[in-house]
């Protein structure tokens, strides 16, 4: 009888020990924890556009064109940003300009500091990684997968295409004086500074 009681007590101790060793969580709690680990590119892009683009350092567009024209390769390597091994360098530019014409995919502006210098402000076919890479807002080394990193560009371009461009096009007309800040890229193997195209982050009227 004593042996039986002893075995029963031992069994109870083992069961209690095993029970306490197991950590139980509700499915809802587990799901919330997993969701917290999922990167949200849309929120990341919205935060950048709402809180960081105004203070983003930029190169004066006129100065950029003048200096790049002297030695585009050297200038790009010293002042541009690029990802990986390629010939594309990205820049954040800003400037004051006068609207010359409104085309299907771009608004053509003339830089106020030099009436010989013209720039295209992109209003359609907005894609690529120029904003993400020129702003250096994200480091690919901090992301678990390239999809999350690439989705940042997708969401940034969506905001430009759906928010910044429509309100600008609704109002803009030839002769308007504007301030712009945006991202551009140049290929040092095939540079064409006369066709410089800027994806806008900020567009303000100075009329």
* Number of helices, counting only DSSP H or I runs of 4 residues or more: 7
Percentage of residues in DSSP E strands:
15-25%
Low-confidence stretches: 10-14, 16-25, 29-36
Average pLDDT, all residues: 87
Radius of gyration: 27 Å
List the helices and strands in order.
Answer: HHHEHHEEEHHEE
Q: How many DSSP E strands?
A: 6
Class inferred from helices and paired strands:
alpha/beta
Strand order of the largest sheet: 2-3-4-6-5
Question: Which structural traits does this protein have?
Answer:
207 residues; alpha/beta; 5-stranded mixed beta barrel; 6 strands; 23% strand
List the helices and strands and how they pair.
Blueprint: H1 2-21, H2 27-37, H3 41-51, E1 59-60, H4 61-70, H5 72-79, E2 88-102, E3 106-111, E4 118-122, H6 130-135, H7 146-171, E5 177-187, E6 197-205
Parallel strand pairs: 1-2, 4-6
Antiparallel strand pairs: 2-3, 2-5, 3-4, 5-6
Helix pairs in contact: 3-7, 4-5
Keywords: Membrane, Transmembrane, Transmembrane helix
Protein name: DUF2291 family protein
Organism: Thalassobellus suaedae
Word description of this protein:
Keywords: Membrane, Transmembrane, Transmembrane helix. This is DUF2291 family protein. The chain crosses the membrane at residues 7-24. It is built from 7 helices and 6 strands, in the order αααβααβββααββ. The protein is α/β, with parallel strands linked by helices and 207 residues long. α3 crosses α7 and α4 packs across α5 (72-79). Mean pLDDT is 87; it is low at 10-14, 16-25 and 29-36.
């Amino acid at each position: 009888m004593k042996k039986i009681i002893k075995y029963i007590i031992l069994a109870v101790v083992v069961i209690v020990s095993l029970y306490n060793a197991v950590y139980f969580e509700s499915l809802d709690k587990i799901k919330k924890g997993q969701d917290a680990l999922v990167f949200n590119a849309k929120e990341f892009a919205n935060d950048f556009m709402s809180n960081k683009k105004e203070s983003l350092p930029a190169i004066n567009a006129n100065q950029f064109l003048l200096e790049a024209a002297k030695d585009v390769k050297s200038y790009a390597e010293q002042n541009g940003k690029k990802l990986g091994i390629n010939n594309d360098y990205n820049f954040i530019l800003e400037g004051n300009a006068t609207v010359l014409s409104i085309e299907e995919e771009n608004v053509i502006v003339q830089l106020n500091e030099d009436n010989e210098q013209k720039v295209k402000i992109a209003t359609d076919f907005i894609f690529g990684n120029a904003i993400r890479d020129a702003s250096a807002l994200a480091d690919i080394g901090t992301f678990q997968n390239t999809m999350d990193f690439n989705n940042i560009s997708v969401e940034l371009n969506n905001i430009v295409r759906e928010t910044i461009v429509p309100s600008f096009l609704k109002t803009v007309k030839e002769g308007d004086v504007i301030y712009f800040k945006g991202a551009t890229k140049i290929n040092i193997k095939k540079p064409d500074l006369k066709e410089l195209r800027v994806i806008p982050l900020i567009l303000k009227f100075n009329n």
